[in-house]
Design goal:
Strand content: under 5%
Shape: globular
Distance between the termini: 55 Å
Number of helices: 20
Number of strands: 0
CATH class: Mainly Alpha
Helix content: over 70%
Largest sheet: none
Number of domains: 1
CATH superfamily: Sodium:dicarboxylate symporter
């Protein structure tokens, strides 16, 4: 009975029950969709305000524009390097395994992809950078546009930090509001087993297991590649900093199970921020890296995009030489940023990229629609792990992590605080986790 009180056990039970109900009662998929989307919407309701108050209070407390810029700059450089490695890994594995060979183009289902093609033709990478600056802040919060909220929060935090003494009372009140938001998050988190259940009922009930047999080789190849990326590339990065990737994954196991059920990385964004702060990472680093990573560091999506394009080329027997494949990687580095925050962005990016390449039939996308929901789970899990590792590494590199707290909470697997116990210090000054002398550098 004590084991059943653990959140990750409850979520796991929800996932298993969702699979069973979805398989034997597929007509309930619409009910599962409502349950799953309701839970995700409850989480999304908190994302924008949590990002805003976390970043604003973090930057205001550090009082340094240079520090925020340095963290953001290092994060972007790290994201681009890791995203490139993910794209290259997808290309390499697709060339070795060749998941599209042996599958006839005649097997392409009669699925309407015109909507994705039209949306893809309207997306341009320049628009992504223009989109970063909000024209209406209220609208950005209303739509939950993470990137626009992030930009406004940074500017607001810098402005608040320049008020010196006059701004301290505002910062103090913002910290109180943030504490209230985390309390709300704790309540919503209790519903995560139900959300995972609904998500699996919808996925299995609507798509079933039958579609997996047709494209089983692609599915297996993608899952294996995602695992290779996580345990080899990210594992080596963690080991370089003398940290354990496995123990970090154990620490966020509840969030990973929620992602499995919901097929959405956004469903755990606030929870991950809480977990990383509780593990000793500076709120400033967490507030800057996690939201930025959701647009710039989608490692699982990068693997999927490069592998999917080569898969379609193999189905249609389109030979791509080395330079063409490197060109695909270069194009994806740009187009993968061009559809951030857009529903169905994976297919939109694929259509945009295929249109730019001009040698691979866009019709091949119809093959992927049936299994996309199943692959989205691995994409989302890889994205979450990638951003979690990025935050820990950047905090470690910036010396903005409490090593003793991290070792106690994560590395030693001792009892950790729940979200409810997450405490934003209000009455006492925050512990300095970095060398103030670096400010003038």
């Amino acid at each position: 009975m004590k084991l059943l009180r653990q959140l990750y056990i409850q979520v796991l039970i929800g996932v298993v029950l969702g699979i069973v109900v979805g398989h034997f009662f597929p007509s309930l998929n619409s009910v599962g969709k409502v349950i799953g989307e309701t839970y995700i919407n409850l989480i999304k309701m908190l994302i924008a305000p949590l990002i805003f108050f976390t970043i604003v209070t973090g930057i205001a407390n550090t009082g340094s524009l240079g520090k925020a810029g340095r963290i953001g700059g290092k994060a972007i450089i790290y994201f681009e390097i890791i995203s490139t490695l993910a794209l290259l890994l997808g290309v390499i594995v697709a060339n070795i395994v060749k998941p599209g060979f042996g599958l006839s183009a005649n097997n392409i289902p009669n699925t309407n992809i015109d909507g994705y093609v039209k949306a893809g033709s309207e997306v341009h990478w320049v628009d992504f950078f223009l989109h970063m600056i909000p024209t209406n802040v209220v609208d950005s919060f209303a739509k939950g546009d993470i990137l626009q909220v992030l930009v406004f929060s940074i500017l607001f935090g810098i402005g608040l930090g320049k008020l010196d003494t006059a701004g301290k009372s505002i910062t103090h009140n913002f910290e109180k509001i943030n504490k209230i938001l985390f309390s709300i998050l704790n309540i919503i988190t209790l519903l995560s087993p139900l959300g995972a259940f609904g998500g699996m009922v919808y996925t299995i009930g609507k798509f079933g297991f039958g579609t997996l047999f047709v494209l089983g080789k692609l599915m297996a190849t993608f899952y294996a590649t995602a695992a290779l990326f996580i345990f080899v590339i990210l594992g080596l990065i963690m080991r370089y900093y003398k940290l354990s990737l496995f123990k970090l994954l154990v620490y966020i196991k509840e969030e990973l199970l929620i992602v499995v059920g919901s097929s959405s990385s956004e469903s755990v964004l606030p929870n991950i921020m809480v977990k990383l702060e509780d593990a000793g990472c500076s709120p400033t680093v967490v507030g800057l890296v996690i939201p930025t990573g959701y647009s710039f560091n989608l490692d699982g999506t990068s693997i999927y995009l490069s592998m999917a394009i080569l898969f379609i080329a193999q189905v249609f027997n389109v030979h791509l030489d080395l330079w063409q494949q490197l060109t695909i990687v270069g194009i994806l580095l740009i187009t993968s940023k061009g559809a951030g925050g857009i529903t169905g962005s994976g297919f939109i990016v694929l259509t945009t990229s295929l249109a730019a390449i001009k040698v691979i039939p866009v019709e091949g996308l119809a093959l992927l629609i049936g299994v996309d929901r199943f692959m989205s789970q691995a994409r989302s899990i890889t994205n979450v792990i990638g951003n979690t590792v990025a935050t820990v590494i950047i905090a470690k590199h910036e010396k903005m992590i409490d090593d003793d707290l991290y070792n106690t909470v994560v590395e030693s697997r001792q009892k950790k605080r729940s979200i409810q116990e997450h405490n934003i210090t209000i009455d006492k000054p925050q512990k300095v986790l970095f060398n103030e002398k670096t400010e003038t550098a």
